């Protein structure tokens, strides 16, 4: 892809972000970048079963107005090569390999769901790499009922299949008068990019991710009291995938962290309330 260098204006629309690759540690990682280069980049860590095409442009674009934003497919996902690891620690090691391959010494992280679990393992192992942390729709290692994510996920995929809708409409949003239209609007926004779309995740890769989440939920908690990074935590108040109480748990464990819980919303609360949440994230990352 060309860099669109005809103008000096950086691309700030995720729908137009160029697709790139970098090879490191035997893996070719697919990624996209947008926003002005220079300064500390914001690296986005994506959710279960997600590829580059699963980021809500209403969250990415406002951050990319003033920051260099990078989204990527972890090993074995979307257009990245290799096989999905069956542990969150190994996913964090892959993320580290990817970030170092782009020669960054310091990053900010914006993470959602599974991405938040990977981000926590990364920051525990490489605290010097991460300046700020945004953890949304996620929970701590060993957190209550994280090992039940797989059951909830399969149940909702079945419900979605029966109604011929996107599983995310069930998994991320309440099935009520506010949740249903928010779900449809979110799924439509994910279609705004029309060129160079990513490959879907394979069923096997998805199942391996679920296995890794189960293992993470059943393992001993990490010591998050050591985290000194400013941390913003957000979720909806009715998250059925990664229960909302886990956001409160994270907030208690990470000293000085900020917590935002949106009413009448689920796992995708930050997407339902993107007009409120995007400016909060932008301000937090700019501080």
TrEMBL record:
Database matches in InterPro entries: AB_hydrolase, AB_hydrolase_1, AB_hydrolase_fold
Q: What Pfam family is a match, any one?
A: Abhydrolase_1
**Gene3D superfamilies xrefs:** alpha/beta hydrolase
- Keywords assigned by UniProt, alphabetized: Hydrolase
Name the domain of life.
Answer: Bacteria
Which Gene Ontology molecular function entries are recorded, alphabetically?
A: hydrolase activity
Q: Which residues form the AB hydrolase-1 domain?
A: 42-271
What is this protein called in UniProt?
Alpha/beta hydrolase
Which species is this UniProt entry from? Answer: Pengzhenrongella frigida
């Amino acid at each position: 892809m060309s860099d669109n260098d005809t103008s000096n204006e950086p691309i700030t629309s995720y729908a137009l972000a160029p697709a790139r690759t970098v090879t490191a540690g035997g893996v070719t990682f697919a990624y996209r970048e947008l926003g002005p280069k220079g300064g500390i980049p914001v690296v986005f860590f994506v959710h279960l079963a997600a590829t580059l095409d699963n980021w809500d442009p209403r969250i990415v674009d406002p951050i990319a107005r003033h920051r260099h934003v990078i989204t990527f497919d972890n090993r074995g996902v979307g257009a990245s090569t290799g096989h999905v690891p069956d542990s969150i620690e190994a996913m964090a090691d892959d993320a580290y390999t990817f970030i170092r391959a782009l020669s960054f010494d310091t990053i900010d992280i914006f993470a959602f769901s599974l991405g938040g679990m990977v981000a926590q393992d990364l920051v525990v192992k490489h605290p010097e790499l991460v300046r700020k942390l945004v953890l949304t729709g996620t929970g701590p290692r060993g957190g209550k009922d994280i090992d039940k994510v797989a059951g909830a996920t399969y149940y909702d995929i079945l419900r979605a299949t029966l109604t011929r809708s996107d599983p995310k409409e069930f998994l991320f949003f309440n099935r009520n008068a506010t949740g249903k239209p928010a779900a449809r609007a979110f799924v439509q926004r994910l279609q705004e990019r029309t060129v160079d779309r990513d490959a879907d995740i394979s069923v096997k890769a998805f199942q391996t991710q679920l296995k890794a989440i189960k293992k993470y939920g059943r393992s001993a908690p990490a010591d998050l009291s050591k985290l000194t990074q400013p941390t913003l935590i957000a979720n909806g108040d009715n998250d059925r995938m990664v229960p909302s109480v886990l956001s409160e748990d994270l907030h208690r464990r990470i000293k000085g962290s900020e917590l935002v819980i949106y009413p009448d919303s689920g796992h995708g609360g930050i997407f339902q309330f993107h007009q409120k949440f995007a400016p909060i994230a932008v301000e937090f990352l700019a501080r």
